[in-house]
Amino acid sequence: MDTVTSEQPASRGRRVRCCIVGGGPAGMMLGYLLGRAGIDVVVLEKHADFFRDFRGDTVHPSTLQVMDELGLIDGFLKLPHQRLQTMDGLIGGSKVRIADLRRLNTKYPFIAFMPQWDFLNFLRESGKRFASLGVLMNTEAVDLIHHGETVAGVRARTPDGIVDIEADLTIACDGRHSTVRERAGLSVEEIGAPMDVLWFRAGRTPDETENLFARVEPGKMMVTFDRGDYWQCAYVIAKGQYEAVKARGLPALLEDVVRMAPELKRGVADVKSFDDVKLLTVAINRLGRWTRPGLLCIGDAAHAMSPVGGVGVNLAVQDAVAAANLLADALTRGCPSEHELDAVRRRREFPVKMTQAMQVIVQNNIISGALKGGDRPLKVPLIVRLITALPWLQGIPARFIALGVRPEHVHSRAAAVS
To answer: What is the pTM of this model?
Structure first.
């Protein structure tokens, strides 16, 4: 029996080999790779465009290497971006260096700061040469189609009504609040995070050359990214304290910001109200099971990452590369078995767990202590003092942040382009 739980009838239908739900980094990269392999694939993106502010926009060397392997790097690096090679900070007034990417033996020893919508648009435009790849904007998956116990596609809402998209394989790339995951009944293991993040922009003038990455003081923490004509700011607060911050008022928040980063004094005038401040609710979690028959979850739908290290986008891309490597050939014949689909989890679970474990260590040993506040001066943790004092050690956190655990390389097939 074919079943869906949506009460709205479908107005029309479509059939593809693979339906990817979600046009974020995991979905667009996997769509590109499967289209490149000649697989009949469609990517569903619920919004009309990719423009969403305050999305992850750090493109790390692991992702730059993937773009290079795909022959896309030259065009990609022509897009406006800024480059970061060293991560410096102030902890309790003491300057520290957390990582130095120049010490890495990699072709692209820098992090590229690029708006995520530019990254996604670049993948979409690059993928237009593949006749087998379709990207449907304004198309939101609202339910799953089942053939018995097997997921057989999605029911989606479009501007023209409800449509059923039948697929041999459905892949959930629809983020940490995944509708597909919820409809499939996959349970999430919550690991927890002690903080949330307030994102906002502060204006920047060309003469402002401050290169500090992170600032940590008793009760306060902030990260700033140089975005050329503005500073992207991440003000870290204790978990669940957003309403208390709002109750203190915007002037009090901005005063704290300027005390930590005096160079932002002119730029914070751009923050007119709390409408200009976006709350990112931080979560670390992961699925124990990434699959059902006919269904696979990857990216944030399978594992939400903390913003520590800015690795979320790059973990999602790595998942996509691994999924294409492992599944593209099987998809030419039909839907891979659930055991074949689970090979993606078996390949990616170790890097995910290791990355989340390191994020928890940073949370517990630096962030939690900083957010507690108090009158005692904040001391630089011993490990950070050692990394700062011994430059050769700076390559270790640089490698973890830039390349990750067991980085993936493109091995999936490339079909001839007509």
So the answer is: 0.91
